[in-house]
Amino acid sequence: MKTIDLCGIWSLKAVGEDKSYPVTVPGSVLSCYIENGVIDDPFYRDNEYAANELFWKDYEFVRSFDVPEEELTKRSCELVCHGLDTLCDIFINGSKVAETDNMHRTYIFDVKKCLRAGENVIKIVCRSVHKYRTEYVDSRGREIHNVQEGGTKGNEYIRKAHSMFGWDWGPAIPDAGIWRDIEVRCHNEPVIDEVIFHQEHNENLVALRAEVRLDEKSRAGLESHVEVCLTGPDGRVIEKTGADTENGRCCLDFEIANPSLWWPVGLGEQPLYTVKVSADGYEKSYRIGLRTLTVSQDKDEWGSEFCFIVNGVKFFSMGANYIPEDVVYSRITKERTRKLIEDAVRANYNTLRVWGGGYYPWDEFYDICDEMGVVVWQDFMFACNVYDVSEHFAENVAAEVRDNVKRLRHHASLGLWCGNNEIESAWACWDSFKGHDPSFIDDYLHLFEDVIPRALRECDDVTFYWPSSPSSYGSFKDVESEDVGDVHYWKVWHGFLPFDDYRKHFFRFCSEFGFQSFPLEKTVDSYTLPEDRNVFSEIMESHQKNSSANGKILAYLAQNFLYPKDFSSLLYVSQILQAVAMKTGVEHFRRNRGRCMGALYWQINDNWPVASWASIDYYGRWKACQYYAADFYAPLAGSLLVEKNNATAWAANESRTDRTMKVVMSVKSVDLRTLATAEYEVKVPAFTSLQIGQIEIPESAADVKSKCFVEAVFTDDSGRMRVEAEPLKLYKHMKLEKAEIECQVTELNDRYEYHLSSKSFAPFTELVLKEGDGIFSENYIHLTGTDRVITLMKADMSEPCKSGVEVRSLQDTY
């Protein structure tokens, strides 16, 4: 086979205009115009609105390429488009080859008749999605209202990432272009269409079958000899075997004795086997993990559980929701994605949910999750919308499902397929969905409970399918039940309820819950001028896509903290709010392990610099919440719960081995006098959560609660130590003394050490590099009388440390 790579430099211009610009493919209108200085940075101030207007135009991408004469003698010449965004007309040498209308699909077209020996010209015209959505006529004459906050009316008509039209955390800039690889391939022999792996697990033995299927179009009745080579995680070849296809298919079987099983991070190792499949010189390579992985819905005393079960072991899912990492998709690189997933694992995630309003990530995303042991909850790309499920739409979606399932099903990290985000619950509960033609509900059921699962089972009859998130049973049965299925809980935040409302609920699996904060000050500086730096300025509100949310942050702040003295302090306290909110929820869910078996907060990342629910901002900077996640998602985590005149300490062990946890509980005054203390050391069995200690609030503290707090110092059997502290009154009513924090810095070969101490209680002590960025071993800590050492590895810094760190605590904000 000869592959002619069409990636690289193309020419781009708006249709009807003369001026053209070089563009690197994979690339887009935005990537081209930004790189060539045609438009200003769309993320700066309010430039997003001008960028959105670009997409009322059509654009054409053009390049030439050479085809050797001998390639045209081959039986098949195909154009392979791995990602076209979205409404595209394709021309080769002036002849129209095809039209496309789905950015989530891989398209393969026969182009042999259009090609000529020597130079060829390909042109791809991307038609305006704005024109399409405004001119679209429903297949049955119905009207769809705009049902999604922050979105653009009509985005549901186009199989394009919904969030490119705006969301309640992202701008509306519906880019266009060639967003994945593109090539021409010429060949005589059939090509491999797909390889399906079947695993049968027995004691100390895995039977592995590789079912190889040739592409029917390129096969044209021909057969091939297929060879398969299986290599172990150590790089040694386990077995090579071969077989001839019959009717374009063959199966090759392997027995793997004493297999190395794949486990999610924290539960074991992630060994990967390599399977190379070749047919007449055409080769595909896969990395697979040997494991069983599904979702258990066993009935229990509370209803039916909802939890992942791997290799027979039920585990608590800990993580967050993932959205596209950039508005400009060509800037989402393998290196950037690896860094994000590394940051997730560093914060003790074992699960990521790929949310349905974005895109199906590149293969590398799943490769990295395989390597790092992160289970993927994979939505199909539908979210918060009403769809006109015409015959063409259904066929288009079925093809989209088959393309992506074939591409992703072999990954060890793939935990489940989910039909959509929030559409079942929206039909049942959202005011914005009311008033639509009832036939849209029939369309919903047809799409998510027939078309998609049927196309899925054609390609993957093993991986668990869940029709919607949240859902209880599907088919609109008991949609908001807390006793079965998964839940999105938003009454904290959208419903204005206080953080401790989480403790009133006992969800089986909470796959969305969240709280907003502003990003770090360096990030805000990147998109504002000094005069913009008021949270109610036009620019700050433009970088906040959830209606009235800046005011909501302040309302929650008023419930908990004194009003900050300046803009910088407000940004910092907003992050404390977010961290405390998520900590409150997750710790409650983990204390009720068994009843609740998953907590995925909304969201890990941003696609531009913005105030949002993300715990890592657009530039990769950790907010307070991400640091807190490393603690509340720790495999062996301690938590402190203060209720009235009693405090309890808890431990949650999400590992396969019994552990030991020691806790020293103290009631202290803000000037760090100890008023009462208790010490416990408890065995914490594998996969359990239990109370390990308690302490009563003495009368000497009860009378002066505004000057006292409870401290719990947790030390596990590895020596890992964490300090928890809870005030006896709301922080805004605490009489905290001014904290004079001493910070001494020691530079070693590979790291900096920051030695911190304070003579008074210093809650939420923050370290921020004055220049550059870095990830500290911990941050936003409580200084409670014990000297603390925080490390910063030089490998975790964006640049050498030149001007030191800034240190502040809550007392510095008012």
Chain-wise SSE layout:
Blueprint: E1 2-5, E2 8-14, E3 21-25, E4 27-28, H1 29-35, H2 48-53, E5 59-67, E6 76-81, E7 84-85, E8 87-92, E9 95-101, E10 107-110, E11 118-126, H3 129-135, E12 165-167, E13 170-172, E14 177-178, E15 182-187, E16 192-202, E17 205-214, H4 216-219, E18 225-231, E19 237-244, E20 249-257, E21 273-279, E22 282-288, E23 293-296, E24 299-300, E25 303-304, E26 307-310, E27 313-315, E28 317-322, H5 334-346, E29 351-354, H6 363-372, E30 375-379, H7 391-408, E31 414-418, H8 423-429, H9 439-459, E32 464-466, E33 487-488, E34 510-512, H10 521-527, H11 538-542, H12 549-560, H13 567-591, E35 598-601, H14 624-632, E36 636-643, E37 646-653, E38 659-669, E39 674-684, E40 688-696, H15 699-702, E41 708-716, E42 721-727, E43 742-747, E44 751-757, E45 762-769, E46 781-783, E47 788-793, E48 805-808
Parallel strand pairs: 28-29, 28-35, 29-30, 30-31, 31-32, 33-34
Antiparallel strand pairs: 1-15, 2-3, 2-5, 4-14, 5-11, 6-10, 6-15, 7-14, 8-9, 8-11, 12-13, 16-17, 17-20, 18-19, 18-21, 21-22, 23-26, 24-25, 26-27, 36-37, 37-40, 38-39, 38-41, 41-42, 43-44, 44-47, 45-46, 45-48
Helix pairs in contact: 5-6, 7-9, 13-14
Labels describing this entry:
single chain, 814 residues, alpha+beta, 6-stranded antiparallel beta sheet, 6-stranded parallel beta sheet, 15 helices, 19% helix, 34% strand, globular
Overall description:
The protein is of the alpha+beta class. It is built from 15 helices and 48 strands. The strands form 14 sheets. The chain has a 6-stranded antiparallel sheet with strand order 3-2-5-11-8-9, covered by helices on one side. A hairpin with a 5-residue loop joins strand 18 and strand 19 (about 235-245). Helix 7 packs parallel to helix 9 (about 440-460). The longest helix has 25 residues, at about 565-590. It starts with a strand and ends in a 6-residue tail after the last strand.
